[in-house]
Sequence to fold (293 residues):
Amino acid sequence: ASALAQVAQAQRDGVRVSLVAEAADAYFRVRAAQRRLAIAQDQIATDERLLDIVRLRFGDGLATEREVAQSEALLAQARTTLPPLRIERESQLNRLDVLMGVAPGTYAHKLDATTPPEHRHVRPTAIPPTGDIGKPADLLRRRPDVIAAERRLAASNAQIGAALAEYYPKLALSGVLGFETLAGGRVPGADTFQPLAALGLRWRLFDFGRIDAEVAQARGANAEALAEYRLAMLHATEDVENAIVALATFLGDPVNVDMTDPQAHGPGSLRTWWFLRGFYEGPSACVSDGLQQ
Fold:
C-alpha cells in the first residue's frame, strides 16, 4: 500500500512538472511569435519603401521592369510570412490559457500586445545559469516517471509475497469485553464482567489451484512492471542525454558524439565533457584527453 501511495505521489509530481514545462514552453513560443511578427512587419515596411524607390527610378528611366517585378515579388514573399506567424501566436495563446485552466482567449489581451518599436531589437534576456545539475544518474533518480515506475515494480513484488502467503495457514485471535446482568438498574461491576476470547484458524487447504493462479497472475504483473520500468529508464536516459548535449551546445562547448563507438574518447567527445565536469567516471584515457583540451 505504501508503494502504491508513492506511485500516486510520483505521478502527481510528474503531472505538475509537465504542466509547468508546457506552460513555460507555450509562453516562450508566444513571445517568439510576437518577436518574429514584429521583425516580419519591419521587413514588409522596408520592402514597401524599396518598392517605392524602384518605381520612382523606373519612372525616371533608371530602372527596368525586371527590377520592379523583383521588388514586388520580395514584398509579396514577406507578406506571406504573416499568416503562419499569427496562427502560431494565437494557437500558443490558446494553449497557454488551457494550461492555466481557463477558457481560450481569457489572458490573450495581456500577452497579445504589440511590441513597441524600441523593444523590437533589444538584446535577448540572458538565461540564468543552471548551477550544478549533478551526475546523469542523479538526474534519472529525480525524474517522477522513473520514481513511479520503480515504486510500481516494488508494489508488484509485494503482491507476489502476498499471493505466496496464501499457501500457509493463518491464525486469528479476537476478544470481546463486556458486562452481563439481568437487572436493568444494576450498576456494572466485577461480578458482571464477561471477557470472551476466540482463536480462529484459516487455511485454504483445498483451494491451492486458485492460489497457483493468483501467484502466476502476481508474477505476470511483476514482469509487466519490470518491462515498464526498463522502458521508463530507456526514455529517461534518452531525455537526459539529449538535455546534456543541448546544454553543452548552448554553453558553447564543442561536442562530437559518436554513440556507436564505445571507445570514443576524443578531445571533443561527450565523455570528455562529462569528465571535466565530474559527471563521468570513465577510463583514465579521459584524463589525457581533458589535459590535451
Residues 253-293 have pLDDT under 50 and may be disordered. The radius of gyration is 35 Å. The chain has nine helices and two strands. Residues 153 and 225 are 5 Å apart (CA to CA).
